[in-house]
UniProtKB/TrEMBL annotation, chain A:
<dbReference type="Pfam" id="PF04976">
    <property type="entry name" value="DmsC"/>
</dbReference>
<feature type="transmembrane region" description="Helical">
    <location>
        <begin position="7"/>
        <end position="26"/>
    </location>
</feature>
<keyword id="KW-0812">Transmembrane</keyword>
<feature type="transmembrane region" description="Helical">
    <location>
        <begin position="173"/>
        <end position="192"/>
    </location>
</feature>
<keyword id="KW-1133">Transmembrane helix</keyword>
<feature type="transmembrane region" description="Helical">
    <location>
        <begin position="38"/>
        <end position="63"/>
    </location>
</feature>
<keyword id="KW-0472">Membrane</keyword>
<feature type="transmembrane region" description="Helical">
    <location>
        <begin position="245"/>
        <end position="264"/>
    </location>
</feature>
<protein>
    <submittedName>
        <fullName>Dimethyl sulfoxide reductase anchor subunit</fullName>
    </submittedName>
</protein>
TrEMBL record, chain B:
<dbReference type="InterPro" id="IPR017900">
    <property type="entry name" value="4Fe4S_Fe_S_CS"/>
</dbReference>
<keyword id="KW-0408">Iron</keyword>
<feature type="domain" description="4Fe-4S ferredoxin-type">
    <location>
        <begin position="74"/>
        <end position="105"/>
    </location>
</feature>
<dbReference type="InterPro" id="IPR017896">
    <property type="entry name" value="4Fe4S_Fe-S-bd"/>
</dbReference>
<feature type="domain" description="4Fe-4S ferredoxin-type">
    <location>
        <begin position="14"/>
        <end position="44"/>
    </location>
</feature>
<keyword id="KW-0004">4Fe-4S</keyword>
<dbReference type="GO" id="GO:0046872">
    <property type="term" value="F:metal ion binding"/>
</dbReference>
<keyword id="KW-0479">Metal-binding</keyword>
<dbReference type="GO" id="GO:0051539">
    <property type="term" value="F:4 iron, 4 sulfur cluster binding"/>
</dbReference>
């Protein structure tokens, strides 16, 4: 599948923003974060900035962005529509949260924060299900895809929260969360990558109904130039590059941030190390998301290439 | 609404039956489809850089050619690929705007180009590659089963068929109601053992592909004696003379 930059950026940026919103809304009432309204407002501003930038980028992907409001109508059948509805609804408690913090109403802030956390989780789940519901793409139609979106969103959001917390003087709790979520993300990605290697949704024999004759091989293509299908769904990445990129994503996006979080918690320097960890995590996730597309194969390529 | 219509017993299921035995891969159906649909329901059907290198465009019908099987049992099969108007059409249910829909009255899957946002998700959801984006208009386009021909009372009744069916010189394409077990197309599917494509994905395509007819096993050819098998030189000479 073609890794469109707008979608790669959207899912990474909005994912991190929703993760940050989720942890902010959930952990603040538990007293695990700095309680100053300025801290919460900074985190909330960063979360909404990332979410809004990501959603804006996703509109660039559309052929007719001025009609995007129509995408809120088909929530009964479409995960993309559900994602849009969840994203739009999440703005309400998130903005209410900010207003309550600003106006100094702690009870309302707690309630709105929890609702915003719920909305953030729901939105990211819908994003994951858009991909997980597509049967022609076996690397996406996989039980680890939607949980993966949730976990990676939680991980990158926590990395951001730890970075802002470190600037506010709180290190230990958020840093240990970064380590735990990062280790979980490594396990999940390793398991996912192992399971998708060599996975096939179908064969050319089944795609052409000619399997009873024997093996089927493409002889003449229907057209000599490329087309939308091949550009959008025929994107291929060499296996050796994929293996290398996976290692870079794992080390740069997960292992190094975990190491930096441990260093920051044990030896200090958190104000520098944790923001660096967050930037590395986001860069690693951009690569991970790019690979998520580049490694995905669509059944339409069976008709063109036989594999 | 992009929920699929509730299945109605005895409802019409219009579709195509494509005979892989007689298709000669002439591309006539694809060309005729492009010609009709460039000015019909889905008009325009764009071409990008049509007169220079890298010319490409939106087509609703693409004719592939395959080799199947090995050696004497192997054969070349020409394979037209277009929308199968699936009963369980995921391209419809994934649509976030309601632009992609399946008609309750005849099962045709269509796109409303006035409400499509061009997100491309329906093309991802189609395992058959039936949908192609009109990148000029920013909306998705697809086979309409020539909905603007088959009900068109301004053209002679005999021509109220999809353009691809009318164009086929070997009558390898048949159009009809596959929801009616007594229709000509349904009988054809039953007689010839019509096959769905990618049945394991569960899309339940309406279009059906008739398999190439099984050829009788070729009779084993007996080795004819060559002149060198004849030991007697005189008889060998006579065999040569008489064989002239």
């Amino acid at each position: 599948m073609n890794p469109a930059p707008s979608i790669v950026f959207f899912t990474t940026a909005s994912g991190a923003g929703y993760g940050l919103l989720f942890w902010l809304g959930l952990l603040r009432p538990l007293g695990l974060l700095p309680m100053a309204p300025a801290f919460a407002l900074t985190c909330l501003g960063l979360a909404l900035l990332l979410i809004t930038a990501g959603l804006g980028a996703s509109l660039l992907h559309l052929g007719n962005p001025q009609r995007a409001w129509r995408a809120l109508t088909q929530w009964r059948s479409s995960w993309l529509s559900r994602e849009g509805v969840a994203a739009a609804l999440t703005y309400l408690p998130a903005l209410g949260f900010g207003w309550a913090l600003w106006a100094g109403m702690p009870g309302l802030a707690t309630l709105a924060g929890l609702l915003a956390a719920l909305g953030a989780a729901a939105t990211v789940w819908c994003t994951g299900m858009i991909y997980a519901s597509l049967k022609p793409i076996p690397q996406w139609h996989h039980p680890l895809v939607a949980p993966g979106y949730l976990l990676l969103s939680a991980y990158s959001g926590m990395a951001l929260l730890a970075a802002v917390s470190a600037l506010g003087g709180v290190v230990g709790g958020p840093a240990s969360f970064v380590v735990t979520l990062g280790l979980g993300a490594i396990v999940l990605k390793l398991a996912y990558w192992q399971m998708i290697d060599g996975i096939h949704a179908a064969s050319i024999e089944s795609a052409t109904s000619l399997g009873w004759i024997g093996t089927v091989r493409p002889l003449d293509p229907p057209h000599t130039e490329t087309n939308y299908l091949l550009r959008e769904m025929g994107f291929r990445i060499a296996r050796k590059h994929a293996a290398k990129l996976r290692r870079i994503a794992l080390v740069g996006g997960f292992a190094l941030p975990i190491l930096l979080a441990i260093l920051a918690a044990q030896w200090g320097g958190a104000g520098l190390l944790l923001p660096l960890a967050a930037l590395l995590a986001l860069a690693g996730l951009l690569l991970e998301r790019w690979l998520m597309f580049a490694e995905a194969t669509h059944t339409v390529t069976l008709y063109y290439r036989g594999t | 609404m992009t929920c699929l219509p509730d299945p109605v017993p005895s409802a019409k299921k219009l579709g195509l039956v494509i005979d892989l035995d007689t298709c000669v891969g002439c591309q006539g159906c694809a060309t005729s489809c492009k010609e009709w649909n460039a000015s019909g329901h889905s008009a325009p059907l764009p071409d990008y850089r049509p007169y220079s290198a890298g010319a490409e465009g939106v087509w609703f019908n693409r004719v592939h050619s395959y080799e199947a099987g090995e050696g004497a049992a192997g054969r070349t099969v020409h394979f037209p690929r277009s929308c199968l108007h699936c009963e369980n059409a995921a391209c419809v249910t994934v649509c976030p705007t309601g632009a992609s829909y399946k008609r309750a009255e005849d099962g045709i899957v269509l796109v409303n180009h006035d409400t499509c946002i061009g997100c491309g998700l329906c093309a991802w959801a189609c395992p058959y590659g039936a949908r192609e984006m009109d990148e000029d208009a920013g909306v998705m386009k697809k086979c309409t089963l020539c909905v603007d021909r088959i009900y068109n009372e301004t053209i002679p009744e005999a021509q109220r068929q999809p353009a691809c069916v009318l164009a086929c010189p070997t009558k390898a394409r048949h159009f009809g109601d596959l929801g009616d077990p007594d229709s000509a197309v349904s009988r054809l599917v039953a007689e010839r053992g019509g096959q769905p494509l990618l049945p394991e994905l569960g899309y339940r395509p309406v279009n059906s592909y008739l398999p190439p007819r099984r050829r009788p096993e070729p009779a084993p050819v007996e080795d004819a004696p060559t002149p060198m098998d004849i030991g007697n030189p005189l008889l060998r000479w006579m065999d040569r003379v008489l064989s002239r």
